[in-house]
């Protein structure tokens, strides 16, 4: 079954959604190489513009996928009414300010309301939004809101802990700092015990996020 927006670059004529051609993208990378002080025609760099564009295709594949479709297959489940938590989902995304990696972990929980979703689909939803240019706050909100909108559970909780390479490898250069964001909806927002149980489950139970 074809999913909306899952066109390969070949299917879409090698032209991205914005209309910028692959050729223009490669030229832009060549310009950056020159600007940095290198010779783009030297042997080691001659294939680099094409490689960078291919890498960007991977990094930003999330613009061509639809998270709603990913979550469309659900199963009726009335015998289980406790929270479901996927913790420590590896996060790799790119900061929209500097286009450098943000690396970390995502924890996703929800309280089902008669329907559950295949757990891999929750990971796929994280991936779709992560493969876009992001700030951590929007990424956190987008994941939670997509699950809430499609699955309509009693509650959703998303916590992200991540290190921003724009802060570790440049700028203020502070390794070891991580940013923690959370989006708690429904029962996780309204019920303090539910929130505590969730935070304990993901290993944030020392009160650090208790008042988030
Ligand atoms: N809130 C938020 N800020 C982010 C995120 N990723 C990067 N930033 C910040 O975005 C800001 C951009 O600030 P600017 O002053 O425009 O850019 P800059 O001169 O490169 O800033 P410095 O990083 O301080 O050198 C910086 O403070 C970054 O630390 C994010 O996910 N969320
Ligand atoms: Zn940044």
Automatic annotation (TrEMBL):
Name of the molecule in the record: GTP cyclohydrolase 1
This protein's UniProt keywords: GTP-binding, Hydrolase, Metal-binding, Nucleotide-binding, One-carbon metabolism, Zinc
GO cellular component term of the entry, any: cytoplasm
Entry similarity comment: Belongs to the GTP cyclohydrolase I family.
SUPFAM superfamilies in alphabetical order: Tetrahydrobiopterin biosynthesis enzymes-like (SSF55620)
Binding-site residues for Zn(2+), renumbered to this chain: 95, 98, 166
GN (gene name): folE
Region (Disordered): 1-24
Biased composition (Polar residues): 8-19
UniProt source species: Hwanghaeella grinnelliae
Quaternary assembly: Homopolymer.
Keyword Cytoplasm: no
GO biological process, one term: tetrahydrobiopterin biosynthetic process
Pfam families associated with the record: GTP_cyclohydroI (PF01227)
InterPro entries the UniProt entry points to: GTP-CH-I_C/QueF (IPR043133), GTP-CH-I_N (IPR043134), GTP_CycHdrlase_I (IPR001474), GTP_CycHdrlase_I_CS (IPR018234), GTP_CycHdrlase_I_dom (IPR020602)
Gene3D superfamilies hit by this protein: 1.10.286.10, 3.30.1130.10
Annotated pathway: Cofactor biosynthesis; 7,8-dihydroneopterin triphosphate biosynthesis; 7,8-dihydroneopterin triphosphate from GTP: step 1/1
GO molecular function, one term: GTP cyclohydrolase I activity
Domain GTP cyclohydrolase I: 26-202
Catalyzed reaction equations: GTP + H2O = 7,8-dihydroneopterin 3'-triphosphate + formate + H(+)
EC assignment: 3.5.4.16
């Amino acid at each position: 079954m074809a999913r909306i927006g899952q066109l390969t670059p070949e299917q879409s004529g090698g032209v991205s959604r914005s209309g910028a051609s692959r050729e223009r993208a490669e030229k832009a990378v060549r310009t950056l190489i020159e600007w940095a002080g290198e010779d783009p025609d030297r042997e080691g760099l001659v294939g680099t513009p094409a490689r960078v564009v291919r890498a960007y295709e991977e990094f930003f594949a999330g613009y061509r996928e639809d998270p709603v479709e990913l979550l469309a297959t659900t199963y009726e489940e009335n015998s289980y009414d406790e929270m479901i938590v996927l913790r420590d989902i590896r996060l790799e995304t790119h900061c929209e300010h500097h286009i450098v990696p943000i690396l970390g972990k995502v924890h996703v929980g929800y309280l089902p309301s008669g329907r559950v979703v295949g757990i891999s689909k929750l990971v796929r939803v994280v991936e779709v939004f992560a493969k876009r240019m992001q700030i951590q706050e929007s990424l956190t909100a987008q994941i939670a809101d997509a699950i809430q909108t499609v699955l309509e559970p009693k509650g959703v909780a998303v916590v992200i802990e991540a290190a921003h390479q724009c802060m570790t490898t440049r700028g203020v250069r502070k390794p070891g700092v991580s940013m923690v964001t959370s989006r708690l909806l429904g029962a996780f927002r309204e019920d303090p015990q539910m929130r505590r149980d969730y935070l304990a489950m993901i290993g944030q139970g020392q009160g650090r996020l208790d008042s988030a």
